[in-house]
Amino acid sequence: MGDFLNVSNSLSGRRWVGPNAETERAALHLEQQTDLAAPLCRILAQRSVTPETAKQFLEPTLRDLLPDPHQLLDMEKAARRFLKAVQSNEKIAIFADYDVDGGTSAALLIDWLRQMGREATLYVPDRIDEGYGPNDEAMAKLAASHDLIVCVDCGTLSHGPVKAAVGADVVILDHHLGEETLPDAVAVVNPNRQDESGELAHLCAAAVVFLMLVEANRQLRSGGAKGPDLMAMLDLVALATVADVAPLIGVNRALVQQGLKVMAQRNRPGLVALADTARADSAPNSYHLGFLYGPRVNAGGRIGKADLGARLLATNDPSEAEALAQKLDELNTERREIEESVRAAALEQAESRGIDAPLVWAAGQGWHAGVVGIVASRLKEATNRPAIVIGLNDGEGKGSGRSIAGVDLGASIHRLVTEGLLLKGGGHKMAAGLTVAEDKLEAAMERLSELLAKQGAGDAGPADLRLDGLLMGAGATVELVQDIEKAGPFGAGAPAPRFAFPDQQIFFTKRVGESHLKLTFGDGIGQRIEAICFGAFDKPLGSALENHNGARFHLAGRLEINTWGGRQKIQLRLEDAAAASSA
């Protein structure tokens, strides 16, 4: 298969790869057998959708896709113990992780309990002082005044803290990688336990909590009672699924698609306040969840007060929601500034160490623990290598890592813990956290690099840019994007289609903020199209396009609808470009 548009080395150093002949044939067959638009058929063909399965794929329903909660070990026990606490008016505490998945998981439980006339204590650990997951002191304190502690999005590795919860029962609802032995809790519901089949490994914690509530409602019904309306809670599950970068496959597609419909009804004060603060003026889609709402909910856990996000999502008071959303918006702006300074320093350090190694890493004194994960993501994207970024304080480093497809970072981090090179560590294939003694930092990173090399981490060149086809200016319409969106929601494991516009003239460019670029382009025949390229000046792309001197370019990216003042127009989210003459 040749390079698409003959681009073997774009301005980002990438090779462009188009759809293969087999996909093209399958797309044509779909188009002939259904009345669906050609670009939509191309996307469906890449997802291996056939004419027979197209309708079901385009309209995923929970009735067809929701797994039986009993598929997960300990589920029946977890729901039974939870209901006993509700019916006996016991005191319930919810111990939640400080990210979006933890916050939404807690909010789901608080909302359900409130509708049943019950309250719960919310506890979210401080990222800096307490770190990830349950700790002995907090669990002992909660156990002294509660009968049941429900740990959400954490707890699977917390043997000591569960033991410390003397006098209370503990139920764990999580999705992080488990070890061979589990904590001594009443129930550990987790699709990533080692004794699970792995069929539901793609669920985030909020989806696990949702399934537990499905089972709780079922047990209530069998006793002649009725539980709250769970369909109305799918807005929270959708937010968690997208923000936690869970792959949008199987039931996750249905959860997000249905959840977006619920969100559009604007019934949850916290999400309404979030949307208004982020100035989102169109119906929510997965972009809003991942890039506008998720970072704001996360900002509290990163650099502010850890429980702000969960409190915002759980409140039913519009004025409290407005105040919390405002605070999170301010923290998010602050987080971006901190992130930018750490990112620049980390990139410089990683480059001096060499970015062709199987692992790209950087560590710095005082780097804020709340942004190391985002910066690791940026390093991973820039190098197409697994990346670890560590903040050092008082002889200890707390870090976060992100991986590339096909390289299991979580398992390698686990290995380092068992080998004594890390003090703590855990996660899943694509993301992990770790704590390391500063004097073992170099040895730990060297060993981790060795383990990742065995999985092929150092073999990747800059990632190929996969394209779904060519588009001319006249073909880029609002109707086309609406058609394409039927194959959504798009996100992790189900990327939005990417198109190339060949041989384009650039009419206008403007730098936005530190590193973004706005431009207008066209082929001289069809319409002129506006584009935005985020992080353009982090690579040669920005200056090449800004100083184009009339040169023409092939431009590649994803189409979206920009709604402004009630009017809709097309915008390209530009990801790459190549000089048309040299390509």
From TrEMBL:
Domain RecJ OB, which positions?
Answer: 468-576
Q: Which SUPFAM superfamilies match?
A: DHH phosphoesterases (SSF64182)
The record, for InterPro entries, names: DDH_dom, DHH_sf, DHHA1_dom, RecJ, RecJ_OB, SSDNA_exonuclease_RecJ
Instruction: Using the record's annotation, list all stretches that form the DDH domain.
Output: 91-241
What molecular functions are annotated in GO for this chain? 5'-3' exonuclease activity; nucleic acid binding
Q: Name one GO biological process term.
A: DNA recombination
Tell me one Pfam family matched here: DHHA1
Q: Which residues form a coiled coil?
A: 321-348
Keyword field: Coiled coil, Exonuclease, Hydrolase, Nuclease
Using the record's annotation, list all stretches that form the DHHA1 domain: 361-453
Source organism's superkingdom? Bacteria
Question: Which family does this protein fall into?
Answer: Belongs to the RecJ family.
Q: Which NCBIfam families match?
A: recJ (TIGR00644)
Return the protein name: Single-stranded-DNA-specific exonuclease RecJ
Q: Which species is listed as the source? A: Halocynthiibacter halioticoli
